[in-house]
Design goal:
The complex is a heterodimer. Chain A is an alpha+beta fold. Chain A is built from 20 helices and 30 strands. Classes of the chains: A alpha+beta, B alpha+beta. At the A-B interface, helix 1 and helix 18 of A face helix 2, helix 3, helix 4 and helix 5 of B.
Chain lengths: 785, 155
């Protein structure tokens, strides 16, 4: 037994918010009620691209109970929001650029009334030609979405990004085999069960907004901009969040800016809850991409060159598109050691729904291309896809396809692939399913024409924001007189388990049981800006800031314990009854024997003594990710986490219907702070990824979303959920708290490609777009015949 | 529109209320009675977040109009625990990590409670069927199914 044994971290403890959530006591934004509360709803654009000639509101205004109708003219500050470029209007001014633009907003005494009043607003438009295909949008005579080019766009091209490493032309000349294909991963809708919502209150000077918000500080900045008042007069308070997945990252900025405007002017609380239709029509989606992928290899299956071109539909506004673009570019060639690689990406404005953050952030799309390419290459080489991957993965000490030296990670990938292959019985099943399929081809009996397949996908995922974007976090820790611990951070609990994990980290650092710790909900007037709750960065980055803050807060307590025990270092032991004690760091005492152990001091006595001696028990933790190298260059990402998912499917050859029977999901998380919540992330991410690969299809026609409801846009139900075996791999990271890396996104990224590769194995043909819906699979089978 | 009066029993307590006949049971529970544990995810019966027990059986509260709730005996998530002690299905959700964002949880738990009332030892397939009308976007359903099938399995 050493002094390094972990007390709280690494244990599958119950979620700290579980009790509230199973009893219906958790308070979400929609559960809040304020006296004199008004309701608000926007009038959406009725065209994908049009000039607004006139907005006629008098009939709507005449309805008793309608308080006011707001348009762009009422915005006192900047009528634009945008995390990267301010291209998205709070209210459309002279032009609408997609169906989700807000033209006006009704504020009235009831939800019924706002619905009625919105229908009575008449808008005259001069309809303009729209552009709905990103490749057409790049052509010279295409209609322009932002004609003035003031957002750095050239024509409709918002941004181009690319890199070249080595000599790609030579690489392909040296290749014995070249695989070149086009892939079309599509849109994905977040479909959080709780739609976007907020309630704003104001006394005419200060503004408070309660909301379902992933990034409260983004909202604060947007509200400040729209109202033209200092950030210090704005308070954004996060309530419980009913799911986010990236869809409540920057999206609430416009929503909250509108509600705050109404509350600020009317001096009454204003609630805005998006209907499901408004939600789907108005908020960002996962970027659909056209990916042309050329991969060269030797006869032995060694990768020598990759050339990837990506064109993505950004929709009408930038949102966080350029960040998605960077991540897509860095990860475009997959988790492989490829000496010569060239990637070019173009993100293009269209009059479609805007695209932005969605769990994985470009990762799932590029993995569909790179991982299907690996299977295609394996097929043509007559090699096992598993062996082809193991031959080419980038490992510790190697260079990524983008050119980053993996000096601090890289062992986790091989472990993920080998573990997933072993547990899923890859070799046996690959063989057995091929024999089964061969038999089925020649079988005329039986009613179901089934094929079986097993497929894999292995990925690397750059943790957190990545250089050169600054990625830092702040957290405070306060130890109160009774020894309980208060933590503040700007990180948000959106269901992933952030509060539980941060509580475990803080409890571990202070040396107390989990229930001593309270994590305050993010409130921008109280907590620090810890950066956005995105990019799987809460555990590693905000968690590390939390650990440092807690260590600082407890330092006086530790000093006093050292003094009393006459040692230089102490550690904590929690007795079976839950009392924490300090003991000498090298004391060979187990928890069960602590009662009889003499050299110990009760934590509570230490806290009381510290307060008696007027010692400060407050810590401010700060950290920034180590992306900057000594030579002044930046790492693409400070570290990577790795994953390999293996899917098993059955395909009905007559209908094209695919059933995913089993997913084996190995994810390297550095250190599982809470194995139960990690499993929850893996299972939930894998099913969301399965949905993207298999069934989720947003249907659009000239910019209009044709299926804006949960009955027409299908997310997986319990009947679609396969058997899942989550496998936790831990390649310790030197930066993250207790070695932890991120898990939120890498739980989803490999799954769509794994499902598509399994379908490919089953039917002997690649389905190179998402979803592998019955129609798309059936068409692939028919076209081949 | 003229209001109608109706009485209904919610979690054992009788309420006499006067509401618009177009109001749904969901809005009655959330806004008239003030029980906000039952959630609204779509308002069109697609997501199941508003599932409550109506006369003992799981139903979408958003699809029941006020007149149809007359005289009904309703159990909501707030009425499941007895004297502060969690219902076994609530405890199982806690123990198995079957909760993430928690927005589907009240409806999910009510569907599971309905199943367990009729079938104390459901198989995984039966559990899946019982919650097939309750969408969850966070958990992938795995731990929820584990929780439901584990409730009455004493080892």
């Amino acid at each position: 037994m050493t002094g390094e044994e972990l007390l709280v971290v690494g244990k599958p403890l119950r979620r700290v918010d579980a009790l509230d959530k199973v009893t219906g006591q958790g308070i979400y934004t929609g559960d809040l009620k304020f006296p004199d509360m008004l309701h608000a709803k926007v009038k959406r654009s009725e065209h994908a691209h049009a000039r607004i000639l006139r907005i006629e509101t008098s009939e709507a205004e005449s309805l008793p109970g309608v308080i006011r109708i707001f348009t762009s003219k009422d915005v006192p500050g900047e009528n634009n929001v945008g995390v990267i470029v301010p291209d998205q209007p709070v209210f459309a001014e002279d032009t609408v650029r997609h169906y989700g633009d807000a033209v006006a907003m009704v504020v009235a005494e009831s939800e019924d009334l706002v619905r009625k009043a919105v229908d009575l607003i008449k808008v005259d438009y001069d309809v303009m030609p729209g552009v709905f295909d990103p490749e057409e949008a790049m052509l010279p005579n295409s209609p322009l979405v932002h004609p003035d080019g003031k957002y750095g766009n050239e024509g409709n091209v918002l941004s181009k990004m690319g890199y070249e490493k080595g000599d790609v032309e030579k690489g392909f000349r040296d290749a014995d085999i070249i695989v070149e294909e086009e892939y079309r991963p599509g849109y994905q809708e977040h479909a959080f069960i709780e739609t976007e919502r907020c309630i704003a209150t104001s006394d005419g000077r200060n503004v408070t907004v309660y909301g379902s918000l992933q990034c409260p500080f983004y909202v604060r900045d947007a509200v400040a901009g729209a109202l033209g008042i200092p950030r210090a007069r704005i308070r954004i308070i996060q309530t419980a969040i009913g799911g986010a997945f990236g869809g409540k990252e920057d999206v609430p900025s416009e929503l909250c800016a509108r509600a705050a405007l109404a509350a600020y002017i009317l001096r009454r609380p204003v609630r805005k809850i998006r209907s499901r239709e408004d939600s789907i029509v108005m908020h960002t989606k996962r970027h659909p991409m056209i990916i042309r992928h050329r991969l060269g290899a030797t006869r032995e299956g060694e990768l020598v060159a990759a050339r990837v071109e990506i064109i993505s539909d950004q929709g009408a506004y930038c949102s966080v598109g350029k960040y998605v673009q960077k991540r897509a570019m860095v990860h475009a060639c997959g988790a492989y050691d490829i000496p010569n690689s060239k990637v070019d990406t173009s993100f293009v404005y269209t009059n479609n729904i805007l695209t932005g953050a969605f769990r994985g952030f470009g990762g799932p799309q590029v993995a569909v291309a790179s991982e299907l390419q690996m299977d295609e290459l394996a097929r043509r080489l007559g090699m096992d896809p598993l062996k082809l991957r193991l031959k080419n993965i980038v490992e510790k000490g190697g260079i990524t396809a983008k050119g980053q030296n993996l000096d601090n990670c890289g062992k986790g990938l091989r472990e993920c692939i080998e573990k997933a292959a072993n547990v899923s019985q890859w070799d046996e099943k690959r063989d057995a399913y091929e024999k089964f399929n061969e038999k089925m081809k020649h079988s005329s009996t039986g009613t179901l024409n089934i094929r079986k397949g097993i497929g894999m996908s292995s990925i690397m995922y750059g943790v957190a924001l990545g250089g050169p974007t600054p990625d830092s976090a702040t957290s405070t820790c306060q130890i109160t007189e009774d020894g309980s611990v208060i933590i503040t951070t700007g990180g948000t609990e959106m269901g992933q388990g952030a509060k539980t994990v941060l509580s475990q980290i803080a409890a571990e650092a202070v040396g107390v049981p989990l229930h001593y710790v309270t994590i305050l909900d993010a409130d921008t007037s109280i907590v620090q800006n810890s950066g956005p709750s995105v990019a799987s960065r809460i555990t590693p980055v905000i968690g590390e800031a939390t650990r440092r803050g807690a260590k600082e807060a407890v330092s006086e307590i530790s000093n006093l314990a050292c003094k009393l025990l006459g040692v230089n270092r102490v550690r904590s032991v929690i007795a079976p009854d839950g009392t924490p004690f300090s003991v000498p760091a090298d004391a060979m005492v187990k928890k069960a024997d602590i009662d009889k152990f003499p050299d110990k001091v009760d934590y509570h006595e230490l806290v009381r003594s510290c307060y008696g001696e007027a010692k400060l028990l407050l810590g401010v933790g700060f950290c920034s990710t180590p992306t900057l190298l000594e030579n002044g260059e930046y790492r693409d990402y400070y570290t990577y986490s790795f994953a390999c998912h293996i899917a098993e499917v059955e395909v009905d050859m007559d209908t094209g219907r695919v059933m995913v029977k089993k997913l084996t999901c190995a994810n390297d998380v550095g250190k599982a702070i809470n194995p139960q919540t990690v499993e929850g992330q893996i299972e939930g991410g894998a099913v969301q990824g399965m949905g993207y690969g298999l069934m989720e299809e947003l249907v659009t026609l000239n910019g209009r979303i044709l299926n804006p409801s949960l009955v027409d846009y299908h997310i997986p139900t319990s009947l679609d959920a396969p058997q899942i075996t989550p496998l936790i791999i831990e390649e310790h990271d030197s930066f993250g708290p207790y070695g932890a890396k991120g898990i939120g996104e890498p739980s989803l990224i490999p799954t769509p490609a794994a499902v598509l590769n399994a379908v490919g194995h089953a039917i002997g043909l690649a389905v190179r777009k998402t979803p592998a819906s019955p129609e798309n699979v059936w068409r692939a089978i028919r076209d081949h015949r | 529109m003229n209001k109608i009066s109706l009485d209904l029993t919610v979690n054992g307590q009788v309420y006499e209320i006067s509401v618009s006949p177009t109001l749904t049971l969901l809005d009655i529970l959330r806004y008239e009675i003030g029980l906000t544990g039952t959630k609204k995810g779509c308002g069109t019966g697609d997501c199941g977040a508003c599932t409550v027990l109506v006369n003992g059986r799981a139903a979408n509260a958003c699809l029941i109009l006020a007149p149809d709730a007359k005289g009904a005996d309703i159990t909501t998530i707030e009425g499941l625990a007895v004297e502060g002690e969690l219902h076994p299905i609530q405890q199982a959700f806690v123990d198995h990590g079957a909760i993430q964002c928690g927005f589907c949880s009240p409806g999910m738990i009510m569907s599971a409670a309905d199943l367990l009332n009729r079938n104390p030892n459901p198989t995984a397939e039966e559990a899946k069927n019982a919650i097939s009308g309750n969408l969850c976007r966070c958990t992938g359903y795995i731990k929820i199914i584990e929780a439901i099938t584990a409730v009455n399995k004493h080892e």
